[in-house]
């Protein structure tokens, strides 16, 4: 096993957990925006969406690194 694989998996688990939290917050915010649209909520939604995109990018990179580590171990 690649020596860094376990730390990459731990980080991936953390990022996956954070992505689920952000997505849940974003869904709640969308529900509020449907009923009470305003600039404050829209700004918060943009912040959460940006964080979610960043998390997805980092998750994708980690998954690629883990795949490379697995391939190297073969």
User: Total number of helical segments?
Assistant: 2
As a percent range, the share of helical residues equals over 70%
Question: What is the residue-averaged pLDDT?
Answer: 92
Structural class assignment: mainly alpha
End-to-end distance: 9 Å
Order of helices and strands: HH
* Whole-number tally of structural domains: 1
Please explain how this structure is put together:
By secondary structure, the chain is mainly α. The protein has one domain. Helices cover 89% and strands 0% of the residues. Helix 1 packs antiparallel against helix 2. 1% of the residues are buried. The model has no long low-confidence stretch (mean pLDDT 92).
Keywords for this entry:
single chain, 74 residues, mainly alpha, 2 helices, 89% helix, rod-shaped
Write the layout of secondary structure elements.
Elements (H helix, E strand, L loop, with lengths): L4 H31 L3 H35 L1
Explain briefly what this protein structure is:
It is built from two helices and no strands. 89% of the residues lie in helices and 0% in strands.
């Amino acid at each position: 096993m690649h020596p860094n694989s376990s730390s990459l998996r731990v980080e991936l688990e953390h990022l996956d957990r954070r992505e689920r939290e952000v997505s849940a917050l974003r869904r709640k915010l969308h529900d509020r925006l449907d009923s009470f649209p305003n600039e404050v909520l829209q700004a918060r939604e943009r912040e959460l969406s940006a964080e979610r995109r960043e998390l997805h990018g980092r998750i994708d990179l980690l998954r690629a690194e883990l795949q490379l580590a697995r391939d190297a171990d073969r």
